[in-house]
Design a protein that fits this description.
single chain; alpha/beta; 18 strands; disordered N terminus
């Protein structure tokens, strides 16, 4: 397949811009009145364009590397150990350490040129479609938009922004761990197809692909696991620095889920409306409690890198910190560290904000 500009002045070629898959000849079309048919991927559901749902993080499994593989010299008598917790004689135990990995939006790529040219470009032909009976595809133009919604909780970090990329500037690998739920990736292609039989007329349409980052209870649990696993510097300390903070965050999400489901809260001899109000109020209370927990035990820092002149990144009074929440130099108790490069507190607050909206716990 090729990319080319289609001349609209080719004699004897009718331009089909019908709203259906069938071809329609339009005489002397006016540019201001032209409307290209849009093919949605995925197709519209319930009258709304939602896109393919993708998540910021996904469950991960452990793996053992054998001697002589993955950089493990044959002289070692043991495999590279599975990513599990160490419990003395039970080495290691079956209790996993890292249970989640960051999500990514990855679009199909091709080499920009012949090897050894390893530059990657989006394989745009993989995203084209034609009506039945049409072929000879040409991509006239294409672009990728990333739309980020504004957060009411952290408007400074998560501002409403739209980025647009064209052609060779389109990025095909996006990591999502710090992506705000509600962020949309939209790929639009203007595609020309030709009928394979007489009268060989033309179909011109837009293929529109959309991916939306969503949040769920399971996805938020995975985000917490990733933030508890990844180090924010060479200190090897995660941004969820206190172990009791990590456990509390996980339990808080479970409490929200149970409260939103109305588990053990339905009261007999009470109207359905009253029980629904009770369910929502209890879920709101759990949301507010989790937001307060994150805000109270978060320390915002310009940077985090421990050194002799900057111990603990000017966060901890003692370094390295223990499992417990620590007193910071600012006098606050620290369980979570937020830096411009790793905005963990804002990430959690935004996820909780979107979670409450997605499950209709709070009103917009």
């Amino acid at each position: 397949m090729k990319k080319a500009l289609l001349s609209l002045a080719v004699a004897g070629v009718a331009l089909s811009i019908a709203q259906t898959a069938s071809a329609q000849v339009i005489a002397n079309p006016l540019p201001s009145a032209q409307r290209l048919r849009t093919v949605f991927h995925p197709p519209l559901c319930s009258g709304q364009e939602r896109g393919f749902p993708i998540a910021e993080a996904y469950p991960a499994s452990s793996f053992t590397f054998a001697p002589g593989e993955a950089g493990n010299p044959p002289g070692f008598c043991r495999d590279i150990q599975a990513n599990n917790r160490w419990c003395g004689a039970d080495f290691p135990s079956t209790s996993p350490n890292t249970t989640a990995a960051p999500g990514a939006l990855a679009l199909c790529t091709r080499n920009a040129g012949d090897l050894p040219d390893t530059r990657q470009r989006i394989d745009i032909n993989r995203f084209t479609t034609c009506p039945s009976g049409f072929g000879n595809v040409f991509v006239q133009s294409f672009r990728l938009e990333k739309r980020i919604p504004e957060s009411r909780k952290c408007p400074g970090t998560y501002q409403a922004q739209t980025f647009v990329q064209f052609g060779s500037n389109i990025r095909t690998w996006w990591t999502l761990i710090y992506t705000s739920p509600g962020t949309m990736f939209i790929l639009e292609l203007t595609v020309r197809c030709q009928r394979l039989t007489f009268p060989f007329d033309i179909d011109l349409h837009v293929d529109r692909w959309k991916w939306t980052v969503v949040i769920s209870y399971e996805a938020l649990q995975a985000v917490i696991d990733v933030l508890h696993s990844n180090s924010i510097s060479t200190s090897e300390i995660p941004c969820i620095a206190a172990e009791n903070m990590y456990i509390t965050l996980k339990k808080s999400v479970d409490r929200i889920r149970l409260a939103a489901a109305g588990v053990a809260l339905t009261q007999p001899n009470v109207s359905a409306t009253a029980n629904e109000d009770l369910r929502r109020i209890n879920a709101q209370n759990e949301i507010f409690a989790l937001e307060a927990l994150i805000s109270v035990f978060c320390v915002f820092a310009d940077c985090f890198e421990s050194s002799s002149l900057n111990p603990g990144g000017n966060v901890f009074m003692t370094f390295p910190p223990s499992n417990d929440t620590q007193m910071s130099f600012g006098g606050a108790m620290t369980g979570i560290i937020d830096t411009p490069e790793n905005p963990c507190c804002c990430k959690l607050l935004v996820d909780v904000e979107r979670l409450a909206e997605a499950y209709n716990i709070v009103s917009l």
